[in-house]
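Page 47, continued from p. 46.
Same chain as before, 177 aa.
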Amino acid sequence: MINLNHFNNKKIVSIILVLLLCLSACSDENDVEKEDDKKLNLQEISFPKSSIDNKSFDIKTYNDEILLINFWFPSCPPCIYELDILNRLDNNYDSVNVLGIQALGLDTKEDGFLMMEKKGVSYKSIADEDENIMNQLKINVFPTTILYDQKGNEIKRWIGIIDEDVVAEKIFEIGIK
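Result:
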């Protein structure tokens, strides 16, 4: 049992207020969208010209299709857990494509390629070598997954590990061809 007799009432009230402020500041980022954040269309973002396996890459390949972009890196356990989920989503829906965007720093492009190969991932992944994409999209938590509609508009953003059923439901909401 905790003895609170040595605390005076002002200290207890102060501690409770600080805790309440902390809790109110820690909202669920999975569902929070700030009105003042401009959502960029895919065409406004500069993507690299090659994937992590050094094959040609062009974001226009995904025009007129639903795109699920996942920000990840190989030494991130939640990111690795998601690879199987994302691969199933990519394989289960013809008009939905998944694109991995690997953050560099702790890992190299080769680390990313080897991890995707080990996990049997079939979708492409590119490296954000200069952090340009992450900066433009304000990515600072991994994994982060963003759903884009057929016109390249951001529809939904998930921070942390995605729930496959929730993502599939959102895909159905925006319409599968």
